[in-house]
């Protein structure tokens, strides 16, 4: 960091800086951008805490993990690591002193990063403020807390193949693929998992449950994915957290605030080109329509509680309140996120491109589980939507998890 500050000061004074200082500064700046692509602060910085000094508990299907302190503090951070340790961790999931990581730290994606990007990231991490903050990262129950078991997990599930360019695709497409598959680790959240917690690569980016939310399908599906989104609309969402189709909430709001909103325009375009290259569905599956009684009950709840913002016909109100008609989030197989939004409400993320942060109020106090199930069933079947009904048990389950 001293080299970076020296370079800035010297350049500001109009004096030619030494080449080595400039090279170091460039490396650190590139590394800082890699931390943006990887959203390092999203996991390793808790709200109100020092940058990268350890994050909030991460709820996994197997128990709790806490992202550790990755500042260069010698006792509680990575101050005793070296560049080789860091490279091995990113490529193999084995860190300093042979400690095996759990794939909640997405080394199965980071392994696709090239050596230069990893070296740059390490150079940046060595310059952040060292913070003494001891974190007990592994809080999994026995026997899952035995890290040696990860050697078997890696043998079964970990593919260390580096990213390979597709010569039949454009440079822009390949850059987008490199970000999505590598540093951006989009599949870590958006790809369904096996019972062992490994990505189901046959369903890449088709949506997965994550900490009480459902990270939606971001393939080309015309119903549940982003098939109806244009490249420009996808770029706008990643840059600002909002477009006419959706407003980011939950973990995605954090990812936009700390990562995608800070990406360069060319990289956002590359990601959009890559994601929009996924094939669209050929035909939507016809779900069983709810009975008229449930639809009538749900419509009544909708008129009283939702129509003022989302419109009587589900058309929404531009970037302030998303349309529900034809909304891919509404059409997901899982209703976790929909139920959670009704119960908890939501606040849009603040970004430079969209500083207004419209909110949805919590309706948990106002609506019981059956009413929420009815209104969501109505929304998922009205205005051309064609998703399965929601049961009161679905709502009860989410409400109970939120109360824990």
From TrEMBL:
The keyword rRNA processing does not apply. It is found in: Cell membrane. GO terms for cellular component: plasma membrane. Heme c 2 binds at residues 186, 189-190. Its cofactor is heme c. Binds 3 heme c groups covalently per subunit. Heme c 1 binds at residues 40, 43-44. Residues 26-129, 171-279, 293-383 form the Cytochrome c domain. The keyword Disulfide bond does not apply. PROSITE patterns: CYTC. GO terms for molecular function: electron transfer activity; heme binding; iron ion binding; oxidoreductase activity, acting on CH-OH group of donors. Heme c 3 binds at residues 306, 309-310. Residues 1-21 form the signal peptide. Keywords: Cell membrane, Electron transport, Heme, Iron, Membrane, Metal-binding, Repeat, Respiratory chain, Signal, Transport. InterPro entries: Cyt_c-like_dom, Cyt_c-like_dom_sf, Cyt_C_IC, Cytochrome_c-type_DH, Membr-bd_ADH_cyt_c. This is Mono/diheme cytochrome c family protein. It comes from Phyllobacterium myrsinacearum.
């Amino acid at each position: 960091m001293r080299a970076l500050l020296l370079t800035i000061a010297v350049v500001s004074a109009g004096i030619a800086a030494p080449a080595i200082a400039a090279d170091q500064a460039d490396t650190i700046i590139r590394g800082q951008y890699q931390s943006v692509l990887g959203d390092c602060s999203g996991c390793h910085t808790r709200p109100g805490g020092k940058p990268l000094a350890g994050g909030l508990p991460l709820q996994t299907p197997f128990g709790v993990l806490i992202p550790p302190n990755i500042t260069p503090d010698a006792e509680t951070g990575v101050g005793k690591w070296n560049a080789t340790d860091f490279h091995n961790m990113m490529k193999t999931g084995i860190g300093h002193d042979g400690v095996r990581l759990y794939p909640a730290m997405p080394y199965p994606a980071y392994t696709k990063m090239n050596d230069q990007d990893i070296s740059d990231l390490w150079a940046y991490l060595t310059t952040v403020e060292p913070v003494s903050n001891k974190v007990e990262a592994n809080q999994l129950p026995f026997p899952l807390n035995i890290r040696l078991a990860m050697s078997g997990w890696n043998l079964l599930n970990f593919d260390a193949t580096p990213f390979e360019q597709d010569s039949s695709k454009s440079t822009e497409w390949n850059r987008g693929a490199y970000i999505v598959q590598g540093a951006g680790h989009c599949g870590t959240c958006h790809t369904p998992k096996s019972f062992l917690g490994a990505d189901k690569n046959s369903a890449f980016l088709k949506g997965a449950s994550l900490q009480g939310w459902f990270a939606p399908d971001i393939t080309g599906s015309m119903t549940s994915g982003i098939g109806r989104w244009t490249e420009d609309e996808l770029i706008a969402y990643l840059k600002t957290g909002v477009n006419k189709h959706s407003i980011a909430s939950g973990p995605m709001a954090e990812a936009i605030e700390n990562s995608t909103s800070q990406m360069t325009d060319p990289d956002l375009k590359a990601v959009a080109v890559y994601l929009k290259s996924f094939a669209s569905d050929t035909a939507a599956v016809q779900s069983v329509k709810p009975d008229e009684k449930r639809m009538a009950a749900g419509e009544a709840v909708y008129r009283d509680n939702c129509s003022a913002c989302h419109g009587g016909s589900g058309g929404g109100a531009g970037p302030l309140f998303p349309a529900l008609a034809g909304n891919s989030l509404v059409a997901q197989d899982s209703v976790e996120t929909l139920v959670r939004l009704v119960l908890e409400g939501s606040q849009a993320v603040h970004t430079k491109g969209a500083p207004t942060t419209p909110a949805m109020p919590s309706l948990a106090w106002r609506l019981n589980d059956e009413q929420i199930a009815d209104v969501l069933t109505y929304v998922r079947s009205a205005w051309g939507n064609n998703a399965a009904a929601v049961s009161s048990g679905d709502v009860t389950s989410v409400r109970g998890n939120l109360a824990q």
